[in-house]
Automatic annotation (TrEMBL):
Keyword rRNA processing among UniProt keywords: no
Coiled-coil residue spans: 101-128
Stored InterPro entries: HATPase_C_sf, HATPase_dom, Heat_shock_protein_90_CS, HSP90_C, Hsp90_fam, Hsp90_N, Ribosomal_Su5_D2-typ_SF
Alphabetical UniProt keywords: ATP-binding, Chaperone, Coiled coil, Cytoplasm, Nucleotide-binding, Stress response
Residues binding ATP, per UniProt: 33, 37, 79, 84, 92, 99-100, 138-143, 188, 369
Name the record gives this protein: Chaperone protein HtpG
Compartment list: Cytoplasm
Region (A): 1-369
Subunit comment: Homodimer.
Protein purpose: Molecular chaperone. Has ATPase activity.
Region (Disordered): 233-257
Keyword NAD: no
GO MF terms held by the record: ATP binding; ATP hydrolysis activity; ATP-dependent protein folding chaperone; unfolded protein binding
Organism: Succiniclasticum ruminis DSM 9236
Length: 594
């Protein structure tokens, strides 16, 4: 049979063009894509061989092999997987079947156009918008990514159980050729004719170097289930007859077959077989941390969406946790193949301190950051994980109080922000979060939960009292504390500017309203204060002109001058209006606007 020439489908051409001329930053992902295809092909053969063992042709040792050729400037990726027939080569390699890929294409082109336009407008020196680059660099595009690093790609394949082998070749010029060829072993090998920047000395990234390939495999494909092998050649100084090193003799070359990947990801192993130290070591290795985590959680879910998640809370909150530059998010894998470093669409922002990874076969490798937000699988997994985390934290609070308080001191602010966020997002798990809050109070000088507070409230107490201030002492000295303390009521100390926002969002707990000591009229809710309220009103009426005079003197500095029943020994106190912002909130606003 003759060599046949084919035109690429229009979309394929478009994708190829983007590959060659694109502004992709992450060229190295081509290896991940080709290795993942090889692994898929082996999966398929392994599965088929369960019922047709002859398909293995006596070779059941699955392997993916990298063969670089420094001189020829080529890199070959070989697998002994299922292989392809001629029709399959045309269908799978010549066309883009995935609707997802088509969508990416449209988005990509749009992004490219925007970037180009921006560059033109800003003059030659302008750099492409970083976010656009990010978008484009974040997803793989399968087989065609090979063209990001190569001028010509040759694919040789033979389907397991078939006699004919096929050679496919393209220089990405809009056409490809197919011809029959002898292929000894079933499976596929892909040879890349590497471009200038990717081979030889002085290359930007030498894809024929053992070191480069090893590190790329470790980075992207470490947990591929099949061994990824490569020969390593090392030189040792030659020795003479006596066994001493002799510089005059040519060095001795030694070639060893090495397996580059560790194959079993920790998270895929059985929970009961993993020790705490292993979890901790993995955390440090995987997320470049120095200290052990304070918490980890390993879960596997099967059902509508299948996934494994391994989550951690670092021992210390990063200093920039609440700054713009902090990038939250979990690592994303699909069948142990790395997709993305920081997927921030899984967990709500108030859990931004959680690190970890999610591995789901229901996720496609070809997923862009933009599309993630609408991705159903991501949504389902994210919701489940949020639920799990909240439940785990509640357990910690109930069973390991000391540990929880340590957690609270590092990350409590995030949970408070979560409660506050319920103002904007009704889906926020406000009630569960409320149970996780801790506050200092006037009793015992210990952190306490809202439940602990309300459980020990005397019958006569109708509201949950709180006061804001910069520290405990400042609050203790508030004139307003007197009357409340006198009644034996407990007061929550809100020392963090976000505390009050948090309670504002909650409004009440266990049917009890929150009431500030420094806002509006203090209703201590008993008969005594009802009568004194009446008395106060009468006195106010009698002294109307005096109060008016006060207001005139103070002018704009205050809204109103009132008589109050909330003081015991002090003569005056400043309070905020019932509905306006409180002092603490005003301060927080001032801080935010500074
Ligand atoms: P995807 O892997 O997402 O399907 P790719 O562009 O990576 O998309 O690959 C396209 C198709 O080509 C694959 O689905 C598969 O059918 C075929 N293919 C690619 N590489 C191999 C291989 N090494 N062995 C067998 N088939 C392959
Ligand atoms: Mg693929």
């Amino acid at each position: 049979m003759e060599k046949e020439k084919f035109e690429f489908q229009a979309e394929t051409k478009q994708l190829l063009n983007l590959m060659i001329n694109s502004i992709y930053t992450n060229h190295e992902i081509f290896l991940r894509e080709l290795i993942s295809n090889a692994s898929d092909a082996i999966d398929k053969l392994r599965f088929a061989s369960l019922t047709h063992s002859d398909l293995l042709e006596g070779d059941s040792e699955f392997v993916i092999r990298l063969t670089p050729d420094e001189k020829a400037k080529t890199l070959t990726i070989t697998d002994n997987g299922i292989g392809m027939t001629k029709e399959e080569v045309i269908k799978n390699i010549g066309t883009i079947a995935q609707s997802g890929t088509k969508e990416f294409l449209a988005k990509l082109e749009e992004a490219n156009k925007i970037a180009k336009k921006a560059e033109e407008e800003a003059g030659k020196e302008a750099k492409t918008d970083a976010t656009t680059k990010d978008l484009i660099g974040q997803f793989g595009v399968g087989f065609y990514s090979a063209f990001m690093v190569s001028d010509k790609v040759t694919l040789i394949t033979r389907k397991a159980g078939e006699k004919e082998g096929w050679k496919w070749e393209s220089a990405a010029d809009g056409t490809y050729t197919i011809e029959p060829c002898e292929v000894e072993k079933h499976g596929t090998s892909i040879t890349l004719q590497l471009g200038e920047a990717y081979a030889g000395e002085g290359a930007e990234q030498d894809m024929t170097s053992y070191w480069t390939l090893e590190s790329l495999v470790k980075k992207y494909s470490d947990y591929i289930r099949y061994p990824i092998k490569m020969e390593e050649t090392t030189e040792e100084p030659a020795r003479n007859d006596k066994g001493d090193i002799d510089d005059k003799l040519p060095p001795v070359k030694k070639t060893e077959d090495k397996t580059l990947n560790s194959q079993t990801p920790l998270w895929k192993r059985n929970k009961s077989s993993i020790k705490a130290e292993e979890y901790n070591e993995f955390f440090k290795h995987q997320f470049h941390e120095w200290e052990d985590p304070m918490w980890y959680y390993h879960t596997r879910a099967e059902g509508t969406v299948e996934y494994t998640a391994l989550l951690y809370i670092p021992g210390k909150a990063p200093a920039n946790l609440y700054f713009q530059e902090y990038e939250p998010g979990l690592q994303l894998f699909s069948r142990s193949v790395f997709i993305m470093e920081k997927c921030k669409d899984l967990l709500p922002d108030y859990l931004r301190f959680v690190k970890g990874l999610v591995d789901s076969p229901d996720l496609s490798l070809n997923i862009s950051r933009e599309l993630l937000q609408q991705n159903h699988t991501i949504k389902v997994i994210g919701r489940n994980l949020e639920k799990n985390i909240l439940k785990q934290l509640a357990d910690m609070l109930a069973k390991e109080r000391e540990k929880y308080e340590k957690f609270w001191n590092e990350y409590g602010r995030s949970l408070k922000a979560g409660v506050y966020n319920s103002v904007y997002d009704p889906d926020t798990k406000k009630d569960q979060l409320a149970d996780l809050l801790l506050f200092m109070t006037s009793k015992e000088g210990k952190l306490c939960t809202l439940k602990e507070y309300t459980d020990r409230m005397p019958e006569s107490q109708k509201a949950i009292y709180y006061a804001t201030g910069k520290d405990k002492e400042a609050i203790e000295h508030l004139p307003q504390m007197e009357a409340v303390k006198d009644k034996g009521f407990e007061v929550m100390f809100l020392l963090d500017p976000v505390d009050e926002f948090c309670l504002e969002a909650l409004q009440e707990y266990a049917g009890k309203k929150f009431q500030s000591l420094s806002r509006g009229d203090l209703d201590l809710g008993d008969v005594e204060s009802e009568t004194s309220k009446k008395e106060t009103e009468d006195i106010a009426k009698d002294n109307e002109t005096l109060l008016k005079d006060f207001k005139e003197v103070l002018g704009e500095k205050v809204n109103e001058v009132k008589l109050t029943n909330r003081l015991k020994d002090s003569a005056v106190c400043l309070v905020a209006g019932e509905y306006g912002p409180s002092f603490a909130m005003e301060q927080a606003f001032a801080m935010a606007n500074a």
